Amino acid sequence: PAQPRDRLRVAVQKSGRLGDPARELLASCGLTWRESRDRLFLYGESLPIDILLVRDDDIPGLIADGVCDLGVVGRNVLVEHHLERGAAGRPASLREWRQLGWGACRLDVAIPEGDEWTGPAQLAGLRIATSYPQTLGRWLRENGVEAHPVVLNGSVEIAPRLGQADVVCDLVSTGGTLRANGLVPVTTILESEAVIAGPDHHLEDGRQEIADLLLRRLDGAVQLRE
Ligand code: PRP
Ligand code: ZN
Ligand code: MG
Question: For ligand 1, what atom is nearest to the CA of residue 172?
Answer without folding.
Answer: 12
